[in-house]
């Protein structure tokens, strides 16, 4: 094989390997994406559990970049806190080492064509003739097979370059040489968008004798750092928490890279001695062991100083008051399930904000200056959120995610009607003029404050009971107003205005109750989706009729 042919064959192998990685990741995300998202949300309550979850999910998806970007999206959408997201990001570094182990242990010992070609055929048939899940599984299977076909082409290409590409052609074991090798590793990962492909390439080059162990090890350290590029891109335009997660990922990989160089000092002589006895097998295993060890050591080290590390990141990127719609990143629309969760977190924020405005409007001293402007701003936020929800591809949603989407639409409807009623200044003013209405308004306001300050898991039940209390008092007050109409010298229109204001109180309480009912359903479906059933539209309609 000539030099040009060897280069083209090796490059084709890298491309085939990248295509396989992409197909495997996309197939696994489509096949088990919901389960992976549920696992990340459920098993990240402590940093250590987050590390374990991140390692498992990355090993399954075969892409630390995909997992890191997913986590940044979750943090930006408010589904994971900054602290929870960090554990998963750290664990992704450990999970991504599985690719190296697969390549080192299987890729050089088996007849790759005999192994991979039947799998490509099976995967192709599954994609062509299977149902939705079978098609996704077929894509993942074909992608897995393409990994090994690409690896075989890389091996063949490097074999043809054995006399051209030698360790002497690469930078040597000096400070400048290591910096150059590190940069090569970073560039390879940034260009290919896959540290796994870079590690596989390094393993092939090491196996072919094109580079030595020390050179391969430094390049792998660079590849580990280069994988942060995709995550940093994903944070552009995101929330502060999302950018903090991306920055933490970058700083963590820099720290891990520094520790890896320190580990290389005692590790390299041991590896060289083993390679002298064990040959190419020992060389490959030495590299993947080094890759795994320095990532595990990096995670262990960062967990020890996690508190100060998080404080440092928060100092660099300080928290600030963000727009209520900060989570509604249009890039999330390519993952409809994540977009639904972002919209769900956003309507929750809007609900709390508008309830605060309602409490202010029911103040005994009357609405404060600027309340109307804040209400108009809340209406604009509602319009923006509704536009985001409308752009979600609801046809692809299934099961609990589809039900959550329906709950979000119900909440937006109630928030819109609540905002419309809150803008009725005359009815608010009537509440302050009549003593009996003012007392009912104070009771209502106290209930709203009590509900907002309590445990959110019980707010739907609290507001449901409170709405019944207000409704009972409103009906009693209406009967009293009707019985006394005209007896105190006021024109009949006064009694009608007061009844209308009392009914206004009942209706805003009703909207608050229904909002919290749907928010509670959203939260419970995230925690235990099998225990939630869709909210029937008829039930909502009957509740609306009862409210009127």
Question: How are the elements arranged and paired?
Answer:
Elements: H1 3-42, H2 47-61, H3 64-77, H4 82-95, H5 97-107, H6 112-129, H7 132-159, H8 175-192, H9 195-207, H10 213-226, H11 228-235, H12 240-304, H13 306-316, H14 336-361, H15 371-391, H16 399-422, H17 425-433, H18 435-453, H19 459-484, H20 492-527, H21 537-547
Helix pairs in contact: 1-2, 1-7, 2-4, 3-4, 3-11, 3-12, 3-14, 4-12, 5-9, 5-12, 6-7, 7-9, 8-9, 8-10, 9-10, 9-12, 10-12, 11-12, 12-13, 14-15, 14-16, 14-18, 14-20, 15-16, 16-20, 17-18, 17-20, 18-19, 18-20, 19-20
Write out key terms for the chains shown:
mainly alpha, Methane Monooxygenase Hydroxylase, Chain G, domain 1, 2 domains, 80% helix
Structure overview:
With 548 residues, the chain is mostly helical. 80% of the residues lie in helices and 0% in strands. The chain has 21 helices and no strands. It has helices spanning 3-42, 47-61, 64-77, 82-95, 97-107, 112-129, 132-159, 175-192, 195-207, 213-226, 228-235, 240-304, 306-316, 336-361, 371-391, 399-422, 425-433, 435-453, 459-484, 492-527, 537-547. The mean pLDDT is 79.
Question: Can you describe this structure in just a few lines?
Answer:
This protein has 548 residues and is mainly α. Helix content is 80%, strand content 0%. The chain is elongated and about 105 Å long.
